[in-house]
Amino acid sequence: MTYHPKSDFIAVMMERGFLADCTDYQNLDEAALKGGMPGYIGFDATAKSLHVGSLIQIMMLRWLQKTGGKPITLMGGGTTKVGDPSFRADERPLLTPDQIDDNISGIKKVFSAYLTYGDGPSDALMINNSEWLDDLNYLDFLRDIGKHFSVNRMLAFESVKSRLDREQSLSFLEFNYMILQAYDFLELNRRYGCVLQMGGSDQWGNIVNGIDLTRRVLDNQIFGLTSPLLTTSDGKKMGKSADGAVWLNPDMRSPYEFWQFWRNTTDADVGRFLKLYTEMPVDECDRLGALAGSEINEAKVILANEITKLCHGADAASTAEATSREVFEKGGVGDDLPTLELTREELGDGLSIVQAIVRAGLAKSGKDAKRLISENGAKMDDAPLSDAGLMLDAAALASPIKLSAGKKRHALIVLKG
């Protein structure tokens, strides 16, 4: 559709590619114009860190704050006990309350890099939905809230329908998730005046449910806005790399590896990712994205630097770039490569090269490591590695050893003491 926004927030959402759909462009635009508009995104605590698949949502909250709105990061301490079934083929494993609290502590760390929390009109709030979900009385909830939901309508939502069409089990526990998420929006509106929920386009049904419930119970007008479900130009889901999830917390994915993930962006994605994941002017994002040949590689370095600055700080970005240039351009070791440190006790009589590759994070299993070697994809100190039976002993580790998987993934093995 063609809509000409009046507010900075909607303008940014549209011109930078964040907007997939909206329940009411005009009235949301008017609400954003007034300033201090509270808007939220929910994050379930299924792991100790979010990964780059959540970064588009975090950037939406950051832009909401930068354009005068009030972001709310809703931690799913309550809903994580149920598990979101949206577009999953199986039920999520249930976590204990202690595991959930531990995960929330880990997830909170990343938000402070992107948002300013406090008591001001546009300062962010961090809220846990266990605040209202943990003490719900089941019978009261069924009578007061459950009566507003049509099972026929819930069955028609794509997230549920796709699971049932494949004849995959959907537990009653999971089926209740969309009711709880709708109730979150109602409570955030009641307690904090929140008028906007944002999320990926797979959350559209859940968001609409919350808007409908709030209208029925409180007779308040609230809004929903979704972002596209992002895949890379080669069809891969954002958030994953060859060796697993690209976590945002530095203790789960080093800033160098994070930087390298973005440096390895395919040419076709550079302009789009600059607009979504950095704050560079849109014209400059388009200019860099249109470069070709060796010039596009420098655009990728800018992309990696800008995203890493936001997530891990300027020092981490410049160190990662310096390490990358050392490794790729000069064939050196680099000070900031992922490092496996071994004690002499751990090393014992020696460590097989296969286990070294696995423990350094360059392969998921011994089988993967052997295949890497047999396909000539492994190197040791930049020399091709062909002997899967090689053993590394103390003499071999007298100085650090650099292992490589392909051209882009490297690690060090260091013997301590």
UniProtKB/TrEMBL annotation:
Q: Which GO terms describe its cellular component?
A: cytosol
- InterPro entries in the record: aa-tRNA-synth_Ic (IPR002305), Rossmann-like_a/b/a_fold (IPR014729), S4_RNA-bd_sf (IPR036986), Tyr-tRNA-ligase (IPR002307), Tyr-tRNA-ligase_bac-type (IPR024088), Tyr-tRNA-ligase_bac_1 (IPR024107)
On the tree of life, the source organism's domain of life is Bacteria
Q: What is its main location?
A: cytoplasm
| Reaction catalyzed | tRNA(Tyr) + L-tyrosine + ATP = L-tyrosyl-tRNA(Tyr) + AMP + diphosphate + H(+)
Q: Check the record and name the Pfam families matching this protein.
A: tRNA-synt_1b
| SUPFAM superfamilies, per the entry | Alpha-L RNA-binding motif (SSF55174), Nucleotidylyl transferase (SSF52374)
The short motif 'KMSKS' region is annotated over 237-241
Enzyme Commission no: 6.1.1.1
Q: Kindly list the biological process annotations in GO that this record carries.
A: tyrosyl-tRNA aminoacylation
Where along this sequence does the record place binding of ATP?
240
Residue positions annotated to bind L-tyrosine are: 40, 177, 181
Q: Which UniProt keywords apply?
A: Aminoacyl-tRNA synthetase, ATP-binding, Cytoplasm, Ligase, Nucleotide-binding, Protein biosynthesis, RNA-binding
Q: Name a GO molecular-function annotation.
A: RNA binding
Indicate where this protein resides in the cell.
Cytoplasm
Segments carrying motif 'HIGH' region: 45-54
Assembly and binders: Homodimer.
Q: Which family does it belong to?
A: Belongs to the class-I aminoacyl-tRNA synthetase family. TyrS type 1 subfamily.
Its biological purpose = Catalyzes the attachment of tyrosine to tRNA(Tyr) in a two-step reaction: tyrosine is first activated by ATP to form Tyr-AMP and then transferred to the acceptor end of tRNA(Tyr).
Identification of the protein by name: Tyrosine--tRNA ligase
Question: What organism does this protein naturally occur in?
Answer: Planktotalea frisia
